[in-house]
Amino acid sequence: MKQTSVVYPGTFDPVTNGHSDLIERAACLFDRVIVGVAENAGKNPAFTLAERVELLQETLGSLSNVEIRPFSGLLIHFVRSQGARVVLRGLRAVSDFEYEVQLAGMNRRLDPNLETLFLTPAEQFTFISSSLVREIAVLGGDVSSFVHPRVRAALRKRFG
Amino acid sequence: MKQTSVVYPGTFDPVTNGHSDLIERAACLFDRVIVGVAENAGKNPAFTLAERVELLQETLGSLSNVEIRPFSGLLIHFVRSQGARVVLRGLRAVSDFEYEVQLAGMNRRLDPNLETLFLTPAEQFTFISSSLVREIAVLGGDVSSFVHPRVRAALRKRFG
Amino acid sequence: MKQTSVVYPGTFDPVTNGHSDLIERAACLFDRVIVGVAENAGKNPAFTLAERVELLQETLGSLSNVEIRPFSGLLIHFVRSQGARVVLRGLRAVSDFEYEVQLAGMNRRLDPNLETLFLTPAEQFTFISSSLVREIAVLGGDVSSFVHPRVRAALRKRFG
Amino acid sequence: MKQTSVVYPGTFDPVTNGHSDLIERAACLFDRVIVGVAENAGKNPAFTLAERVELLQETLGSLSNVEIRPFSGLLIHFVRSQGARVVLRGLRAVSDFEYEVQLAGMNRRLDPNLETLFLTPAEQFTFISSSLVREIAVLGGDVSSFVHPRVRAALRKRFG
Amino acid sequence: MKQTSVVYPGTFDPVTNGHSDLIERAACLFDRVIVGVAENAGKNPAFTLAERVELLQETLGSLSNVEIRPFSGLLIHFVRSQGARVVLRGLRAVSDFEYEVQLAGMNRRLDPNLETLFLTPAEQFTFISSSLVREIAVLGGDVSSFVHPRVRAALRKRFG
Amino acid sequence: MKQTSVVYPGTFDPVTNGHSDLIERAACLFDRVIVGVAENAGKNPAFTLAERVELLQETLGSLSNVEIRPFSGLLIHFVRSQGARVVLRGLRAVSDFEYEVQLAGMNRRLDPNLETLFLTPAEQFTFISSSLVREIAVLGGDVSSFVHPRVRAALRKRFG
Lengths: 160, 160, 160, 160, 160, 160
Known about the structure:
Six copies of one chain form a homohexamer. Helix content of chain A is 43%, strand content 18%.
């Protein structure tokens, strides 16, 4: 039998209920799910890498076959370093789709052994994105139906 | 360890190199790949169900963890009957994406345990579709770079 | 104050919970909602025009400012005959969007006074379409979460 | 009879003929059109909030049922503060559509009473955007067929 | 200097003002424009091949470097038979784009020397399609702003 | 016979194999291909204008009917200054398509004599973009299958 490890990469700035839904589904399907938290220093994230990892831990730490790991550098190197060859990505919208297909094509060229699998979130999560959640939090809106209570608290502390 | 069976459904009228590429990739990732050949009597296919199954057998029969099975009725019933809960679909274009997401949503409603995973074909197969292959064959064009030699022979026999 | 009448046209073959959701929202926003049931003889619908109108009546008849009316001929003529100048359409997917914009452009050319307003369905209805509902019913699937009980009964009677 | 107030929000940096076309159409359909000018301090707009409001006033001030109002904070709070429950948005392209549907879904979650209606601009305005207009002005191009003469003068003053 | 011949293929059932606009633009850009009228017997067109060619002649016959020619069989064979290697296609919408890119990819595989160039119609023609024109004509609508007077007459004769 | 000059504009930060493929195809189709390198000072490019021009020269300088020219200001002014009236653009994805159509519409308004022709890259180049190439280079990945050796050397020098 095959042991299947998948890497679910992202910035998670911060983790939303949409991400959690996907990770929970993946944890049911695969032996091991490695959530790869990209440093993304260039994008000037709202939360530090350590904070983003911690919020993921608090949200999903109880799932026994899920590991939260920060990474910098190329995704293909991180995937290999984890002994994996499958990348998992979420697809919500057409614009996601195009970018993801482009990325998957690039990654396949960089490492022909790498495969990218796509999963769609539950319908109630299709319109949630980290950037919209941050925007609502900045403007003082209620994000409680989009993120975990710990993330909501962190957003409040961050944006006041 | 999880034993993962995936069902890759389609009409396969006829199987193209794009389908084969996806099935071969899937066979590397999952323990068992069940290729579900939909009867689709309503769509008036060019090849009979038996012919479509046979062409798939001839093209992919050598892969030990791939099974070719015809089915009629609802996909979710077929998936359950195979002891599986994962559907695999290929994504080539934006229009595929929308239809597939709609289908995946419907199927998730009909059976909340069902998951749909998506895979993209290798770049050289993104523009191949069974309907374009049939059209070229009808007009007497050369389909040898799009399908297996046995499929080409079958198309020639069928369309003269 | 303006009295606003909107025409919501469609084939409704059959009416789904997605249509009902849109009509209920429209009934809250506008003074009068005329549901225009297109004959569409050319498309060979599963239900007769009379049956489609009746299923809409049974589903939505209790809304006091909603009227169900069959029509044949050009939409712009029907809209004018109802003393209206606004067409309401639902938008679920990108492919809907393009077709709808094309139609709206054509109709604006045919009658510059006509406006088309678009509304999106609630997230849980984005993947429901009449054609998928019919397909599930034909294959013996359970459509109870997609349509009104009366529509389900009609589908069962129609497709056995 | 229902009194219908709609809020048409945007940055209007600056207002284009495409915006004006939409506002004029809306003014014919609804009792009251509130043009909500978002502060958007984060996006570093080319014109100040006061300038953007003034250019809208000069362009559309003569329409009796149109009000131009600046706002900061969440759109749903602004809509409520105006005694309205309908947001109006323009749709030009598929990429607009996806973002708008995402926003409409988020807003519906934040306030289930809120509805978003979409309108398409006249065909000759589909390719006009504030950002392209600014870009042309920066490069010394002629924007007279895209914006009101007062806006053109303001762009010239701003970008020299 | 290169002599550039382009083939503009289609069903032209019937030719619309959108097609004419594209052909006129092409006639200004290229030395020779061959309008290839596909037989498309399988699609059961409203007008015969001879009628479609004739309507194109009446609409565009005065352009000295435009030739109207019927063809059956594969497009690549027709292009070669005309001593050309460039196919010209119109792009109106995203759905066009995807299908056209798929076709261009297929054709490039069948004949690596073949190139496909795309042109967009003038904005006022983006929403015109032969199928919508036929639909309006069938329902007794006025098509005079979408087609040449001769085409309108032919539609009236055909659909009564 | 018409002498056809086309302008292929871009930032080329840096030139990729996808750009080269398009330029080579264009050089076969048209008498003169002017590669217009936009200054784009506002976008803060990774390479200076002079460096981008030089990398293009080193990659494509051997093509006799291709000229590499920097430009600032409006594209339509540059096109006219070259005695050309045709702009050539590449189309890879739906999101490209929409932006390009918007640009082409704007440019047609600014100069009704200007035409934009679109070409699609070979399938193996559809997923290459300058921004993804830069991102891979920044992270220390191998870009040798996406760019010319001289460009790879320049990226290594630039990003270390």
